[in-house]
């Protein structure tokens, strides 16, 4: 990374950590503004690092994540759930396309794909029937989430930051579904947000490293 990228990346991480530290104090004024800012910084960094279509797609992906963060936080994780789901769907589709471009000419490494394939299959069999009126959007989202994870398995020569970030992203999003539709659990919000933010940080770091 350049010095500017390192400073900007550090600012995004610090803001994310501040948001995590302030979770016990919610609701507080403008919490919905603090959460999306790191994703917007990552969007700008990814767009600058990868010019052309790949950079645009990566920027769009993090903007989609920022939108999802906003709708979940502003809507208190329920009021604007569909809007958040659509925003994260944009995030997933943009990552699928961006990772596909970054992985052009690279082999399909099936051994990396097996664990996330099994996990996604079991998750879909559990969550989709439990989603009630949300069955179709949840099924579509899980398929896109799986496609993102599969493409992430191809980008790096060996499992690295981007791959690990994508796997954490899968876990975080699956826990949102588990908590909402199947089995609510204690401390769901801090657990999910911590895993999610860690995954996004690692994806952003991996994207910058892979340029």
TrEMBL record:
Coiled-coil region list: none
InterPro entries linked: TMEM86B-like
Domain of life: Bacteria
Name recorded for this polypeptide: Uncharacterized membrane protein YhhN
Localisation per UniProt entry: Membrane
Family, as annotated: Belongs to the TMEM86 family.
Claim: rRNA-binding is one of the keywords in the record: no
GO CC term (a single one): membrane
Entry keywords, A to Z: Membrane, Transmembrane, Transmembrane helix
Molecular function per GO: hydrolase activity
Ranges annotated as spanning the membrane: 7-25, 31-49, 56-74, 80-102, 109-128, 134-153, 160-179, 185-208
Membrane topology annotation: Multi-pass membrane protein
